User: What shape does this take?
Amino acid sequence: MSRIIAGVAGGNPLASVPGNATRPTTDRVKEALFSRLEALDAIDGARVLDLYAGSGSLGIEGASRGARTAELVESDARASEVCQRNADMANQVLGHRTVSVHRSKVESFLERAADSVLWDLVFLDPPYPLDEPSLKAVLTKLAFHLDEGAVVVVERSSRSPEPDWPDTLERFADKKYGETKLWFAEPV
Assistant: This one.
């Protein structure tokens, strides 16, 4: 069972998505990821966007650690229901509505987002079958909604190639954790 690792809601369990439609980020990877993000001062007061959210664990972890808001975007019906349950629990523990859930395809969500909507920290953990041109298209749309100094984290299989970054994003780091690889990028 996954849990919130640290922050105000640390230690609280998170509901998991039944079946194998999603691939949860392990607690080990999540702990290492958030340690790095804290070292970058990328969490406190951030507006977080968790794309392909699954259970919402990354966005909720950000909210627990001090993000101003966390938006979870998930198209799968069962996963978005789990996201909502986890968001409701986190909002109750946090004492205010910080986490919101959008049941939508990522591409549609980004197309509908107002031009003035900007995020500071974005997680993308797309399904492994998502091809590289589709991922690049999402990253291209996302780049228009990033605030200055934003951090984008893409999680993929360690066997996947590095994302084909659009000209508006530049990778500044990557790290492999067993079967998982994280790429960190920022707007240019």
Q: What stands out?
A: The mean pLDDT is 95. The beta strands are 47-51, 69-74, 99-103, 119-124, 146-157, 169-177, 180-187. The longest strand covers residues 146-157.
